[in-house]
Amino acid sequence: MAKCARLDAASFRLWLAFFPSLLRRRLLQAVACGAYLHRGRRGSCGGAGFNAAEQQPRRTRPGGSERLVELLRAESSDDSGSDEASDDETRRKVESFEELRRVVGWLQLDGHIAGEDRREAAAAEVRRLAKDDPEARETLAMLGAVPPLVGMLDSDDPDLHIAALYALLNLGIGNELNKAAIVKAGAVHKMLNLIESDSSALVSEAIVANFLGLSALDSNKLIIGASGAIPILLSAFRSPDTSPIAKQDAIRALFNLSIASVNLPLLVDAGLVPALLEVVGDMAVSERVLALLSNLVAAGEGRRALSRSADAFAILVDVLGWSDAIACQEKAAYILMVMAHKCHTDRAAMLEAGVVSALLELTLLGTPLAQKRASRLLEILTVDKGKRVSEKGGRSGVPAVSAPLCGGASEASRAEAEAKEGMSDERRAVVELVQQSLQTNMLRIVRRANLPQDFAPSERLQALTAISTTKSLPF
Predict the structure, then answer these.
(1) How many whole angstroms from its chain centre is CA 245?
(2) What residues have CB less than 8 Å from 347, skipping those under 6 apart?
(3) Is residue 307 scored above 70 in pLDDT?
(4) Is 60 helix (H, G, I), strand (E, B) or coil?
(5) What is the pLDDT of residues 244-286, one digit of tens each?
C-alpha cells in the first residue's frame, strides 16, 4: 500500500501512454490506497465507503479523493494546453466516479438497514447510468455492482426484481466480462427460480431479455443450455400472452444456444422442431425460425425430428416460392439440401411435395446463393431419381423412361432423339425428368408474368430447350 501512496504523477503519465485502458484500475487503486491509510483495516474499495450502522454512505477522507484528483489531472494535462480546461475535465471525471461509487455503495447496504426503496432506486440508477455508457458499465462492475444486483433476485418485492433485472441487462450490453460475471454470480438459476414463482409478464420478459444478452457469450451458452432455460424460452416463444418483442428475444436466445453443438439435442428434446414449423408462415419471425432450423438439421437428432414432422417438406417447398423474402428462400434451400444429402429416405417425400419445379424456378430467379443451393439439390434429386428409374427398368427388362413431352416441332423431336442416342438408361431418365420439370416451370413463370393463357413458346425455343436441357444447369 505504501507503494501506491508514493506513485509519482510524471511516471504515471509515462505508464499511461502505454496502458491507457488501465486508467480506471489505477484510479480505483489510488482511492483504495487513500482510504486504507485512514482506515487501516479496510481491504477493499467495493463497500469501504459505507457504514451500515450509520445508515449513511461513509465519506471518503481527503487522502483518497486528493490522490484521485492528482492522477486525473496528470492524465488530462497531456492532452490539454489549458489548465482551466484540464481542471474542468478532471472535476467532471471525479464527479462521475464519485457518483458511480455512491450508487454502488447503496446497492451493497443490507436491505433491512438501507430499505428496499433505496436499493430499488439505486438499481434504477445503475440501469440509467449503464444504458448508453460503456465506461460506466465497466466501472460499475469493477466497483462491485453485480453481486448485490443478483442478490436482489431473491427478494419478495416484484418491483425490486424488475429494477435489478434491467440493471443487469444494461451492464451486460457489449461487455463480455460483465456477462461472464453475471452468470458466475448465479444469476441464471436465480432467474429460473424467479420465473417459476412469479407469473408477472414484466418479470418474464425481463428474464427472457437477460437470457438473450447472456447467451451471446460462448462460455455462457453451455451453462444456460444445461440449466433448464430452453423449455422456459420455448414456452415464452409459444405463449399467446407474450409480447412481440419478447417473442423475438426468445427466438434469438434459442438461436444463440443452438450455435453450441452440445445444446442441439436439448433443443430437439424440448420439441423445438415442430414448434418452429408451426410458425414458419409468420413473416415476423419466419427468417429467424428458418435460421434456427438450419442449425438444428446439422445434428442427426434435428434431421430425424424434421423427417417425422407432418408436412415439413411441403412447408419448406412453399417457402422456396417466397420471391419477396429472399433470405427465407436461401435458408429453406439450405435445409432441404442438407436433408437430401444426409437422409436418402427423405428425397421421395421432397419430390412428392413438388420440390423440383420450385428449385428450377429458383435457379432462374433466385439470388446467387439460392441458385447455387437449388442447383446442388437438383443434382442430388435427379441423380437419385435416375438411379431408381434405372433399377426399375433393369428389373422389368425394359428401359424405363418418362413419357415424352407433348407438343413441340418435329425438328425439336429429331434433335432430342439424336441427343439421346448412345445415352445410358440412367442418363436418359435424368434428361426426361429435367425436361418435364422445365415444362412445368415455364408454365408457372408464364402465369406469374401475367402473359396470355394461350401463350406458347416458339418452335426455336422448344428446340433449344430440348437440346440444351442437361447443359443449362450447373450439375
Answers:
(1) 14
(2) 340, 380, 381, 384
(3) yes
(4) coil
(5) 999 999 999 999 999 999 999 999 999 999 999 999 999 999 9
Answer for the pair 425, 470: CB distance below 8 angstroms, yes or no. no
Distance CA 75, CA 9 (A): 9
Among the listed ranges 286-290, 324-328, 394-398, 455-459, which one has the minimum average pLDDT value? 394-398
DSSP string, 253-309: HHHHHHTSGGGHHHHHHTTHHHHHHHTTT-TTTHHHHHHHHHHHTTSHHHHHHHHHS
pLDDT tens-digit readout, 59-75: 333 444 455 555 555 55
Instruction: Give the helix/strand (H/E) hosting 56.
Output: strand 56-57
- Interacting residues of 214 by C-beta distance below 8 A, sequence separation 6+: 172, 179, 182, 183, 187, 188, 220, 224
Instruction: Write the CB contacts of 452 (distance below 8 Å, at least 6 apart in sequence).
Output: none
Cell numbers describing residue 370: 439460392
Q: How far apart are CA 247 and CA 238, in angstroms?
A: 8
Query: Where is 50: in which H helix or E strand?
Result: strand 50-51
The crossing angle, in degrees rounded to 10, of helices 368-396 and 355-365 is 140
CA count, 13 A, side-chain hemisphere, 144: 16
- Grid coordinates in use for 234? 420455448
Residues 254, 292 contacting (CB under 8 angstroms): yes
Question: N- to C-terminal Cα distance for the chain?
Answer: 73
Q: What sign does the dihedral 67-72-74-77 (CA atoms) show?
A: negative
DSSP 77-116: TTT-S-HHHHHHHHHHHHHHHHHHHHHHHHHHS-HHHH-H
CA distance 218 to 224: 10
pLDDT value, residue 460: 47
Name the pTM for this structure.
Answer: 0.69
Question: Backbone phi, then psi, for 56, in 5-degree steps?
Answer: -140, 150
C-alpha atoms less than 13 angstroms from C-alpha of 364 in its C-beta half-sphere: 13
Cell of 287: 427468417
For residue 277, give the nearest of 327, 248, 305, 312 by alpha carbon. 312
Among residues 165, 157, 249, 149, the alpha carbon closest in space to that of 197 is found at 157
* Residue of 241, 242, 249, 174 whose CA lies nearest to 211: 249
Cα-Cα-Cα-Cα dihedral sign, residues 257, 261, 265, 271: positive
Buried b (16+ CB within 10 A) or exposed e, 177-198: ebbbbbbebebbebbbebbeeb
Q: How many helices (H) and strands (E) does the chain have?
A: 28, 2
- SS3 at position 146: helix
